[in-house]
Amino acid sequence: MRKFTGKIADRVGLPPGVLVYTGERVTEEARIDIIRYNGDSFEEKTAKSVDECLVLEKRTDVTWINVSGIHQVENLQNLGECFNIHPLILEDILSTDQRPKLEDLDDYLFILVKALDYDETSQGVILEQVCMGVGPNYVLSFQERETGLFRPIVERLKSGRGRLRRMGADYLAYALLDMVVDHYFVVLEQLGERIEILEEELIGRPSTPSVQMVHRLRREMILFRKSVWPLREVIGTLGRQESPLVRESTVIYLRDVHDHTVQIIDTIETFRDMLTSMLDLYLSSMSNRLNAVMKVLTIIATIFMPLTFIAGIYGMNFRYMPELEWVWGYPAVLLVMLLIALTMLASFKAKKWL
Amino acid sequence: MRKFTGKIADRVGLPPGVLVYTGERVTEEARIDIIRYNGDSFEEKTAKSVDECLVLEKRTDVTWINVSGIHQVENLQNLGECFNIHPLILEDILSTDQRPKLEDLDDYLFILVKALDYDETSQGVILEQVCMGVGPNYVLSFQERETGLFRPIVERLKSGRGRLRRMGADYLAYALLDMVVDHYFVVLEQLGERIEILEEELIGRPSTPSVQMVHRLRREMILFRKSVWPLREVIGTLGRQESPLVRESTVIYLRDVHDHTVQIIDTIETFRDMLTSMLDLYLSSMSNRLNAVMKVLTIIATIFMPLTFIAGIYGMNFRYMPELEWVWGYPAVLLVMLLIALTMLASFKAKKWL
Amino acid sequence: MRKFTGKIADRVGLPPGVLVYTGERVTEEARIDIIRYNGDSFEEKTAKSVDECLVLEKRTDVTWINVSGIHQVENLQNLGECFNIHPLILEDILSTDQRPKLEDLDDYLFILVKALDYDETSQGVILEQVCMGVGPNYVLSFQERETGLFRPIVERLKSGRGRLRRMGADYLAYALLDMVVDHYFVVLEQLGERIEILEEELIGRPSTPSVQMVHRLRREMILFRKSVWPLREVIGTLGRQESPLVRESTVIYLRDVHDHTVQIIDTIETFRDMLTSMLDLYLSSMSNRLNAVMKVLTIIATIFMPLTFIAGIYGMNFRYMPELEWVWGYPAVLLVMLLIALTMLASFKAKKWL
Amino acid sequence: MRKFTGKIADRVGLPPGVLVYTGERVTEEARIDIIRYNGDSFEEKTAKSVDECLVLEKRTDVTWINVSGIHQVENLQNLGECFNIHPLILEDILSTDQRPKLEDLDDYLFILVKALDYDETSQGVILEQVCMGVGPNYVLSFQERETGLFRPIVERLKSGRGRLRRMGADYLAYALLDMVVDHYFVVLEQLGERIEILEEELIGRPSTPSVQMVHRLRREMILFRKSVWPLREVIGTLGRQESPLVRESTVIYLRDVHDHTVQIIDTIETFRDMLTSMLDLYLSSMSNRLNAVMKVLTIIATIFMPLTFIAGIYGMNFRYMPELEWVWGYPAVLLVMLLIALTMLASFKAKKWL
Amino acid sequence: MRKFTGKIADRVGLPPGVLVYTGERVTEEARIDIIRYNGDSFEEKTAKSVDECLVLEKRTDVTWINVSGIHQVENLQNLGECFNIHPLILEDILSTDQRPKLEDLDDYLFILVKALDYDETSQGVILEQVCMGVGPNYVLSFQERETGLFRPIVERLKSGRGRLRRMGADYLAYALLDMVVDHYFVVLEQLGERIEILEEELIGRPSTPSVQMVHRLRREMILFRKSVWPLREVIGTLGRQESPLVRESTVIYLRDVHDHTVQIIDTIETFRDMLTSMLDLYLSSMSNRLNAVMKVLTIIATIFMPLTFIAGIYGMNFRYMPELEWVWGYPAVLLVMLLIALTMLASFKAKKWL
Q1: Cβ of E321 and A316 within 8 Å?
Q2: Which of B13, C157, E97, E146 sits a CA distance of 20 to 30 A from E88?
Q3: Predicted confidence (pLDDT) per residue in E315-350, tens digit
Q4: Nearest 5 degrees, angle CA C142-CA C146-CA C152?
Q5: Beta carbons of E215 and A280 less than 8 Å apart
Q6: Are B162 and B266 contained in the same domain?
Q7: Which of residues 225-254 of C touch B (CB under 8 A)?
Q8: Of the candidates A59, A68, A80, the residue with the CA atom closest to the CA atom of residue A31
Q9: Nearest CA of chain D to the CA of E12: how many Å?
């Protein structure tokens, strides 16, 4: 449930801009990667604190500072001063339950997105907040914990292949966004597989656990949707190139990520529709089964109750019961019983219960 | 139910601008706090009536008059004359069942919002109407009862820390709004916790009281939504800075509250979806249980009815029943019964009922 | 059902502008009130026909002609000629099943709204169509029957208190609209009370009549919504002051009615959501009850069927049944039966059915 | 079902503009009515083929050619050449499963609408496609079969009463549209009556046929909605007078039809909501009844199973059963049975099952 | 399920523009058809690789290159270089799970649509991605596999009839789009027929397989909708003629396809509504049947349980049971039993259970 509300309540009453970390308490130390590159050179270093963060010189180099672990508030404060970041933005970075959003602050763009991961163990979706500050020649990125999410991009930069090294900070920001969005597909595929398995189960052998699984998947979908839905607008706005920080050459790439986001939202809606349809299917088959069960019971009862009653009659101990003395009494009663049973069966046949 | 309709009907037929208090009758006296501050000084006093309300001098001081308890209509009338407030606005303040709204009356802005609180005793949401008049250098705020809601802001003003003391009336209005919106998160967290507990209950041990609780939570959500939904537009309009009363420096803060409002609406919708999903889950498990119960009944009946019938046959008192005389009659019947029971069990196994 | 379709079908094929009354046949005679006032004077007279309707002189007086009962088509025709009203508008006045609408015909505004009333006897909402023609210094109002709806406004005019007497025809039109909208609150409060009572009933003691009441209330809500929904736009358009017939001073009052309309729509939606939620609650508790009932049945059957079968066995009349001769046979069987019963009860306990 | 898809699939792969009739095969011959009128004169003639169709002379006369039966493709082709109609438009006329639409082709307007009729025999809605070409001084109208739909308009033209004869082709087109829309009210009234009857049935005596009727009515509503929904936009666009072919004097009449269309859509939505509510009511009462039935069963079983068991015990043939020898054994057992029965009844009373 | 997510996850982390085929592995070789035509001449050739693809000379000829089978990435790369196609576009062609979209790249338009086919064997809808690049005098089309989809257009070109040969590349693109959309009607008709059959089944003889079929059809509809919905916008944008590549004469044809698309979406929504209504119908009849079954059971049990109990009483072996000795005891008991049975039946009659 934490996924849905978060701990914003903790900071109620504090003035705006006071930095309080509202995520889960992490004990590992934060890790800061500083990467500097241009078309020709590439330089990477890892720092434990932000003191090592170099003053930004006026060069064509692109600087990417990736902060993994935001619970050390002093790091953020230093970076904030160094890059002149508005206190409200720093507050947003620390509040890990924000909605995806884009803020254009003239000097830099602030982008907040949700990275998703599928956890095999708990079979659930894990949510991670990723923030980016995109300036003319720098990108700051903030993650809650150290994940390997952006490692492939570092590798691509290091290798120098592709256009990544030759393009500016806006293209790097695009690459990071693209990586986040691509991961949604991975999560979606996992969820899709589980839905598929569940559907087969529900058709073959409906059971309570499968309905609880439908419920859980619906919850995951609600969560997923909440994380991706506002992203569409964020990337859409970016792609409309209203900020001079986004170069025209990057726009077509942003439109591509935008298409992916729309496609993901489409698929989420599709999954939600399917889960609803599966639930309907489940309820229908439950109702159907109940009917089948009740028919069996009714048929049995309807046949044997009258027969048992007849047997009960001739089990009475009245002194004067002429039938009991008849030689053919017993076979006659058995015959009557058989006739009754057959009549009943025939009437069930007529009602199509058999 | 009072929450939904209110007593507006009481004033049907009265001409507009006639002041009638439509909230609950309160007996406590109203309390009026008058606060005056600028960057350097801070002054606070509490009055019982509005007569002590000072004439507003042309100074850079900001005056904040906080009225707790609006059932004393004469106070409102005096304030209204003093600050030149339109009678329809005064009427709105007194009608405690208004929708959140913003009116731009050139001289001042009128903002009406709903403060929410979670009542532990009744486990329900309590609604309080908060109105604000925001002029160039004054803020009037009106609450239905004396709550501690705005106390932290008074403290922040008194302490002189932060930018609150140095900013104008518009920033104070923002701070009040922010306080109201921040309290939504507290309420949301409480509701979220109850939903979480309920969900576990519904999965583990579905019962009528839990369904009634789902119903009550849905009602709370409907109420919550009704209170917050229009607020989004109110704050959105404020943030677009169409009034000269809102300074540019305050706009970014208003946008921040706006984001929070959107986030709250998102979460409310998420909760509503989850409650619906929980109800579906409940109905499915009920249906499933009924099936299970009926299967037990049907199995028992299907096995014992034929057997009891056979026993009944040999309990009949016909004189001529050859089987009764056989030495192996009794064990033979028992064997037949056993065979029938086993056949039945096998057929249930085949139907996967066991 | 009449409420939903009306008798428009009666006039199919007639050319437009042919006046046919499509409401219910009323036998009472129409009543025409002619009121003339300005800041200083007030004059009221009641006419049986429109012949007495005075020619409108160019004066600052406001003339209000209120027609109660529109089944006398000739009255309308005369008024139409006198005030130069378009035949299509007259047709609209006569078709009592129109949607609320606003037509700006340059010379005058035509406003059509639905007045609602709550009928205690039938416990249902009664619908009345109210039309208004608003010219520069006159207001024509048309009601289906003579109701006291506008009486309080006549009284306010007569008394000369408030600003009503001093303002123009547009303000009078506003006052009439406000009266209609205020009555919605009365109806809403009645419906709200019934919903509240119903909710308590459904939680305490669900029954078929309460579900039928939910259904009826939903119907009323559908009807209510249909009548109010388009009104929002009508009043919104009026308030945007696009017509020179609406003075600027009246606009703030129109915005106030607009807010009320929005609030009513909000409340209707809230009620609809609540009725849906109540139905879900009802279905859940029905399902729950069925489970409870079936458990009782199953427990009884599962305990007594095997026991009765055992009794049946020893009731068989086989000659050779050794157990029957044992001295301890009877108590032993009773003991076995007791053990079986206890085992069954224990297994139900384990299944949490008890 | 044909109503929903049609036979467009028949022409897959053909080049556009190839004329293939896709409606039902009709054997009657087409009928062509040619009407020519102006303020003073009126002339009507019926032709079997389009050869008789006169060349349009430049006169103030309005020519109305009404083609009933479009399966004779050559007629259409001739008319198409004569009036210079685009092949795609001719194709639209022949494809009888189009959506209502408006095409502005500069020289003429093409309007496609759906005429509805209620068929008493099948108790269903019949759909007829009506197309119109509206030029500066001619109207072409195409119907699938000869229906009396437009007869009243011919009569009105012939009689010369009203403004129809004095107005232009655009007014004639309006009159035709109005006739089509007025017929919707007739159908709606029939459906409304059936819904009303059904509702009473469902409240009084719910049965399977009534639910099937609800289903059928929902189907009709879906169909109805599909036919009317796009019409709103069609007429709305016409009324915005964007084409010089629509004179200003006709606009107010078009707005009137537009209002009717909106009213019809409103009513359809209302009916759909009511049918949904009726289904909910049905399901609730079914669920309620099942409860009632099961309670009866459970009460009977719970009372008689223990009693029968006791009777069974004393029906056993053990040699040593002391109770059987007691003088008061029989009445004592009867008393015990009575006590058990009363206890059971009391407990049911306590559970409010009785 | 593959239909819903695809294998985009495979390429997570790759830089944009790297070409990886994400569809199913196909072993057949790709086939490339190169067609060249103008008003007078027509030339067709089939190539196995793109090397034979001719350099585009500046002529009025239209060149259409149709690639069936996109798994041979090198073909695409060559074509891409030859026609100067952006790497992201090539990537889109290869990712077979894209949403329909239109990209205007100044030099050419990129159109991506989904072709649907109905597979009789699996009774399901098959999805095929079709991409088009439309330049000033060429059209490139890409299909996943070799299907006969575009064969009729080749034939029309070859025959030289109609306007296809005389028009430009934009008209050819229209013809291809039209072919794709026309095929939707075929699929829709098949689905419509299955829905019709299903509906009759559900009304006549509801069963679990039919509900599963409803579920499957709903899935197909979700899929269908997902494929067609974005197409509306694609074709709408094309028809607005914002690109100079689309000639004015083609616009009316594009509007025609647009109408078809809207009609298809309408029909899909109609089908979805009907499937929902069918499910409701099913659930209602299930509920109804359960009631009927339970009534039979209850009636049987209520009649025979008391009777069997009475028979059981007189089957007891008490020594002192005076009734047993009476001469009329047996007939009297039979009479009492008959009376009880009749009373029960009468009460069921009164409850309308019979």
Answers
A1: no
A2: E146
A3: 888 888 888 888 888 888 899 999 999 999 999 999
A4: 85
A5: yes
A6: yes
A7: 252-253
A8: A68
A9: 40
